[in-house]
Amino acid sequence: MTANGNGTAQAADADGVEFVAPETLQPDSKIYERVQNLGAFFKRQFGANPDFYVRVPGRVNIIGEHVDYCGYSVLPMAVSQSIFLAVAKNPADSQLHLRNLEEAKFQGYDVDLKTLKIELPKSGGPAWYNYFLCGIKGIQENLGSQWSPIGMRIAVDGNVPLAAGLSSSSAMVSSAVLATAHVQGKQLDRRELASISAKCEQYIGTHSGGMDQAIAYLGRVGCAHHIEFHPKLKGTPVTLPAGKCFVVANSLAQKNKAASSDYNERVVECRLATRWLAKLKGLANWQDILRFVDLEEACQMDNETFEKLIKENLTKCNYTRADICKELGITEQELETKFLSANTRHMEQFKLRQRALHVIQESGRVAKFRKICEQLAVRPCSEDTKKLGELMRQSHESLRELYECSHPDVERLIAISNELQVSARVTGAGWGGCIVAMCDSVEAADDYIKALKRDYYAQLPSHLLERHQPNDFNEVVFATLPGNGAELYVQ
User: Fold this and answer.
1) In angstroms, rounded to a whole number, what is the distance separating the alpha carbons of residues 72 and 199?
2) Which of 29, 45, 324, 456 could lock onto 5 through a cystine, CB 3.0 to 4.6 A?
């Protein structure tokens, strides 16, 4: 199978299971030069050529934020920015040798895979190589007794912006999963690899919902994907409205979700709200119900009924530890050990109502967005197209007001977008990072990007101007089209 950068075959068996099929990279591929440069770096480091290459993309989520870990569907698309690996296995020993093309920024790392251990710092974010080790450990646990500590030499490159909401960390973990699985001779089922990748991110303390890893493997040129997690992982291609162009703009305010507790605090608040309502509904197994989607199914509620349940029963803006313990009939020690995670045990206030309302309303917006896209594919209608923009605006307002995960710099980008009548929203975990905007045409997107460069990026502090202005800010604000998921290239 060959790849020319304009699309990759989606290999599948008779049961419709999709696999990552090894391909031969052609010289006319858009990524050919980048891969060749990485191969040359690999040879300088290790004195030999790699056996194969891996590419795993970042993603931008069009709508459906902070709902995946509650079991609800999302609508992301893979972007061209990716993590690249050059890999050679070394069966003669069990050593992992990891090198990064940006040597000055990311120090090399060596470890014996027989004694693999992920050590996290007490403060600050994990070292870059820990994300990679997560992926290796994920395959190790998946294979169990079939695991063999086969040595690997790996060189890493990437152009997914860090801590920007485009899933750079998940792309790194997923790339490690794919590379390790291939070295181990494991069948490369895209859905299984996505599930392994989502699960093993917990080793760095991130309770991922699975969206980032799913689109990293299931992405397809020209389509966004409606990704469902319940009752099992399922990806359905969704054709976006003809002519529409999406723009990603990085606020350059960075937040590493593994280095702070904000992300996990939201997960905890959602799980507490789920259990509160499950107990209220008289479910005997209320302690075991962690996701809103499971509660919805157990009580046979639709979206509107669920929203009403929240509004009528979670009436306070802030709940204290005493409130939680009283309602759930637990001690404060049980709250800390059974209900809070390691980096959320400092929490004293819990905004259950706001978090629950955002998730349920946002899940409704995802369903509406997909339905409108499907209608537009059959019958173009300008009014329906406007509704998509309104759903994006509603999503951002909810993320800012109910989920409180925006940032002043993000709000500046949103304000400029609103002035230009461009629908935009924060994308990714939030607290900085990127916005995604929907423009009416490629030409409109060009005008929008020029306005952002003039009114936002040209006003940046001097140290950021020195870094990004020489390239005319093209790495931090760009138009994007849906791209392919993970790919594996052989020599």
Assistant:
1) 17
2) 29
pLDDT at 161: 81
Residue 297 identity (one-letter amino acid): E
Q: Are strands 95-100 and 151-158 parallel, antiparallel or unpaired?
A: parallel
Rg of the chain over all Cα atoms, to the nearest angstrom: 23
Cα 429 to Cα 59, 69, 301, distances in angstroms? 12, 12, 27
DSSP state, 89? E
- Known active-site residue 288: no
Q: Which amino acid is at 36?
A: Q
Structure tokens at 347: 């929490």
The first and second tokens of residue 20, run together, are: 């990552």
Q: Which ranges of the chain have pLDDT less than 50?
A: 1-9
- How far out from the chain centre does Cα 417 lie? 24
- 52-68 exposure pattern, b = at least 16 Cβ within 10 A, e = fewer: bbbbbbbbbbbbbbbbb
Cα distances (Å, whole numbers) of residue 323 to 291, 292, 316, 384, 412: 21, 20, 10, 44, 37
> What does 91-120 look like in DSSP terms, one character per residue?
TT--EEEEEESSTTTS--EEEEGGG-----
Nearest to 169 by CA among 148, 138, 197, 140: 197
C-alpha–C-alpha distance, residues 222 and 480, integer Å:
11
Peptide bond into 231 cis (omega under 30): yes
Provide the mean pLDDT of the chain: 93
How far is residue 312's CA from residue 128's CA, in Å, rounded to a whole number?
45
SS3 77: strand
Q: Is the pTM of this model over 0.85?
A: yes
Q: What contacts 373, CB < 8 A, 6 or more positions away?
A: 224, 238, 239, 240, 241, 388
State the Cα–Cα distance between residues 34 and 309, nearest whole angstrom: 53
Residue (of 252, 249, 272, 283) closest to 347 by Cα position: 272
Which entry of 68, 212, 294, 440 is annotated as an active-site residue?
A: 212
Contact of 213 with 194, CB cutoff 8 Å:
yes
Using the structure block, give the residue that is written with the tokens 């959602």: 270
Q: What separation in angstroms does the CA of 438 have from each of 187, 454, 478?
A: 38, 19, 12
Asked if 215 and 423 count as a contact pair (C-beta separation under 8 A), the reply is no
pLDDT of residue 4: 41
Reduce the DSSP state of residue 63 to 3 states and report it.
Answer: strand
Q: How many residues does the chain have?
A: 491
CA 299-300-305 angle, 5° bins: 90
State the helix-helix crossing angle for 262-280 and 321-328, rounded to 10 degrees. 30
Residue 109 CB-density burial (10 A; 0-12 exposed, 13-18 middle, 19+ buried) = middle
Distance, CA of 192 to CA of 179 (rounded, Å): 14
State the pLDDT at residue 9: 45
CB 72 within 8 A of CB 295: no
